[in-house]
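Format notes (please read before filing issues)

Several people have asked whether sequences and structure tokens are stored in separate files. They are not. Every record keeps both together, in the order shown below: the sequence lines, then the token lines. Line labels are part of the format and must not be stripped during preprocessing.
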Amino acid sequence: MKVDEETCSEIVVPVLLDKIPEGIRLGMTRSSKTRYQEWTMEEMLEALREELEPREHQVTSFKGAYGNASTRKEQKEADDFKLRTARRQKPTTASALHTNQNGDKKKRNCVFCNGSHVEADCENVKTVEERNNMI
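Then the structure lines:
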């Protein structure tokens, strides 16, 4: 089957252009020196190469600067995850007040009898009336 490139290009180029993502296709057609409706296969491939090479270079530069994230959105999601994880590891204000520098719980004195136990375990002041009178 002998088909010349010009005839083949008239059929294949529009089909291939339709398969290329819109953002890339717009960049290809915008920067072209010739009308894209008249492209040969070679001209279309050259326009595609000229559009993709800078994009690939940008992505590899971005990966080098930001680890494995290939887009700003992925980097933002990774940063947000790290921030949420870091927040979970920090003690809350209430727990920080009840721990000493070693991280051990402080021994609290009972507010009713000043004994070395928590209020719920107080044996000296047992009734609600006695506890209310002390407050």
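For reference, the curators noted about this record: DSSP finds six helices and no strands in the chain. The chain has a mean pLDDT of 75.
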